[in-house]
Amino acid sequence: MQLAMVDLKGQYQKIQPEIDAAVLDCMRSGVFIGGPVVAAFQKNLEEYLGVKHVVPCANGTDALQIAMMALGLQHSDEVIVPAFTYVATAEVIALLGLKPVLVDVDPGHFNISAAAVEAAIGPKTKAIVPVHLFGQSAAMWEIMQLTDKYNLYIIEDNAQAVGADYIDHAGQRRKTGTIGHFGCTSFFPSKNLGCYGDGGALMTNDDDLAARARQIANHGQSRRYYHDVVGVNSRLDAVQAAILNVKLGRLDAYNANRRVAADQYDAAFSEMDALEIPVRSPYSTHVFHQYTLKIKSDARLGDETDRVAVQKGREQTAARRDQLIARLAAKGVPAMIYYPVPLYRQKAFAADFDPGMKLANTESLCASVFSLPIHTEMNEEIQNYIIDAVRDALSDR
Q1: CA atoms of 342 and 345, how far apart (whole Å)
Q2: What is the pLDDT of residues 174-194, one digit of tens each?
């Protein structure tokens, strides 16, 4: 059996008539940039998220950049981000001449904590980017308390958790991406809400920030040919909006399917001594953009007293994980490593960080995590095959 991490072809086949009709309507209309289809998707997403403003744009990376530009961040301002995340989160900070400040993440739920963030706040800190990694929220209530205390902005990177609910200290639910000053998301095809090309959006409840973001995303103009600020060209096209309109109505069902698959994985893998199943935070629902396991580590998390022994343990853990992935590949089961290299060891950021920088939890996760296929089209046959393949690959040790 040959499998994929995400079955976009199978998903399309189930909704093909609606997708085809929506795309053909766009073609017949002759309106490909902006227009009523994009406006309808914007309104539908605002209603789904319970947020005042959605600003569609070309991709999730642009969304982060536009948010930072709209907030008026200046050269050399510091922005706190997790060290364990996709490069785009820090990339836009560097592109704007800002300084990324990396903090460690929790080894269980993979997200930053308010305590880790507060310890990194300095006189030049202007913003925090919590990343809702793999499908569940960071601890937003505690992080939001830092905004008033230190006069900071919060930009949620919600590219992997669209549709997830954050439950605050009072038991109130809000969709991730609607809590900070800005939320940003991506509609890359493999996302839980994905189009068939590139796309993204910003979310905010602030009228002024929304107006600024729309202006920046449209060459800095509020009316045609009058450019009040330096902006960018970042637009969600009508064909992608039409596809997203079809899929948005199924997002809750898609996320529910992913949770069912995750439950079945949990039941099987919790009995395998070599693996640690994903932690589910009590303050967040999980939409399982990725189902990410850990190989139980030989390294001691947080204990750096014997650096040689710790490093050796991490290397042994990574070797066991890589061997498992190779054995799964031989059985036709893909597995991905998100993310194998901390941001502070990427060549692109060599000038930004101390070459000896090591964050214990990030180092351990880079050596131990791997993700298995999880998507809306999973069935019992596929999942049992994957589970059996993992069990067999582990028993071959």
Answers
A1: 6
A2: 999 999 999 999 999 999 999
What would the pLDDT profile of 207-218 be if each residue is shown by its tens digit?
999 999 999 999
Contact of 135 with 88, CB cutoff 8 Å: no
Contact 185, 61 (CB under 8 A): no
Tens digits of per-residue pLDDT, 63-99? 999 999 999 999 999 999 999 999 999 999 999 999 9
Residue in the structure block whose two tokens are 């750096």 = 304
Note the Cα 119 to chain centre separation in Å.
24
In whole angstroms, give the CA distance from residue 60 to residue 40: 20
Of the candidates 382, 353, 340, the residue with the CA atom closest to the CA atom of residue 120: 353
With both helix axes pointing from N to C terminus, report the angle between 8-29 and 36-49 in degrees, rounded to the nearest 10.
Answer: 130
Q: What is the model's pLDDT at position 302?
A: 47
How many C-beta neighbours within 10 Å does residue 367 have? 25
Q: DSSP per residue over 59-105, as a string?
A: -HHHHHHHHHHHTT--TT-EEEEESSS-THHHHHHHHTT-EEEEE--
Please tell me the distance from the alpha carbon of residue 327 to that of residue 391, in angstroms, as a whole number.
Answer: 11
